[in-house]
Amino acid sequence: MSDFLHDRLIFGPDDVDLARSPLAGHFDAETYVLGAFNPGMTRLPSGNLAIFVRVAEALCQPIRAGNIHAIRWDEGRYVLDPWPLDLCDTSDPRKFLVHGGKWRVMALTSLSWILPVELSPDGTERVAVHYDKAIAPQASFQCYGVEDARVSKVGDRWLMTTCSVSPERHSTTLYSSTDGLTFAFEDIVLDHQNKDMLIFEGLIEGRYWAQTRPLGDLYFSYPPDSEWRAGPSINLATSPDALHWKPCRKPGIRPHVGTAATARMGGGTPPVRTNEGWLTLWHGVEPQEIVGIYRTYWSLLDPDDPSIVLRTEHTPLLEANAALTAPLEDKMYVRNVVFTTGIAEHDDMYVVASGEADLACRITHIPRSHFT
């Protein structure tokens, strides 16, 4: 990363005013910001940037009277659900597993909502925090939170995808905007456990394109001599209207057998158009302990057929930077995680937005020449 001119944290837990949270005043328990991270990003008509921060709000004392509690939206209010502690596995700070069933069932230790934060044109300074434009649960299919916004500008409209979490489904939901800052809910666009949906910033032959990542517990093996590894991959889908999506027959970006860093992978930034093709930044995960090591990689896709990878690098573009989070050491709960979620052009560089350590928002300047 020697040619990256700017690399810093721009927003973190201490920058969130929980008195203005959508959860404020709904229950008699104190909360804190577990993380303010994974920011979607777009360029506003004013020239400023906007990031859309996932605020994971958690209980300061989740365990009381032998129960661990989860926050849940319920018909316009937020409530606390108690789970017997002896039935739960709490080894992962982000969630707890509920034992006793025939399959894995979990609840979250926090509830997430999306906070728009306006930045200077180069992303290096905060301009405003727009609590009045926050995106929070509004239906039963997102009762455990709205997570990981990704924002794309297509024509004169901004499109935001989010993950909506509930016992009903783990779905992808779509919001739209005419100004890049105020978003209205559209609908569920992908069903159960399809994460990291990234809409391309432009049409191909009049159709919307997107990267998706269906999840599951079963994957069929490639042949023993294949260069690909079975597991989560970055798939493709098309749509006439950004609401109704059809999976593509061809695969997208697949995990490579030659590196453990893609044992799990998924989309990062919405693909942006360059002179050579679509530039996409994505994450690869190397297994380690509970969470794994998250790194950012990049690929250049064919301008007319994004299933064709023109160029890629197996060397990580970004890795977790412990020096950035050193001042937040008392708040750290995972390490070795950088999760890139936004990209925008600025002069001869790209402004890249990432979640760092599931804790804070990181801004990195990367010369556009790095990808040529």
Shape-level CATH architecture: 5 Propeller
Helix content: under 10%
> What is the H level of CATH, i.e. the homologous superfamily?
Glycosyl hydrolase domain, family 43
CATH class: Mainly Beta
What can you see in these coordinates?
It is a single chain. By secondary structure, this protein is mainly beta. The protein has a single domain, classed as Tachylectin-2, Chain A. Helix content is 1%, strand content 48%. It has one helix and 27 strands. The strands form seven sheets. Strands 20, 21, 22, 23 and 24 form a five-stranded antiparallel sheet that branches. It has a four-stranded antiparallel sheet with strand order 1-27-26-25, with no helix packed on it.
Features:
single chain; 372 residues; mainly beta; Tachylectin-2, Chain A; five-stranded antiparallel sheet; four-stranded antiparallel sheet; 1 helix; 27 strands; Mannoside_phosphorylase; glycosyltransferase
Describe the protein's topology.
Layout: E1 6-11, E2 31-43, E3 49-59, E4 63-64, E5 67-74, E6 77-84, E7 88-89, E8 95-98, E9 106-108, E10 110-119, E11 126-129, E12 146-154, E13 157-165, E14 170-177, E15 184-190, E16 194-199, E17 208-214, E18 235-239, E19 246-247, E20 264-267, E21 272-273, E22 278-286, E23 293-301, E24 309-312, H1 322-325, E25 338-346, E26 349-356, E27 360-367
Antiparallel strand pairs: 1-27, 2-3, 3-10, 4-5, 5-6, 7-8, 8-9, 10-11, 12-13, 13-14, 14-15, 16-17, 17-18, 18-19, 20-22, 21-22, 22-23, 23-24, 25-26, 26-27
Summarize this structure briefly.
The protein is an all-beta fold. The chain is built from 1 helix and 27 strands. It has one helix at 322-325, and strands at 6-11, 31-43, 49-59, 63-64, 67-74, 77-84, 88-89, 95-98, 106-108, 110-119, 126-129, 146-154, 157-165, 170-177, 184-190, 194-199, 208-214, 235-239, 246-247, 264-267, 272-273, 278-286, 293-301, 309-312, 338-346, 349-356, 360-367.
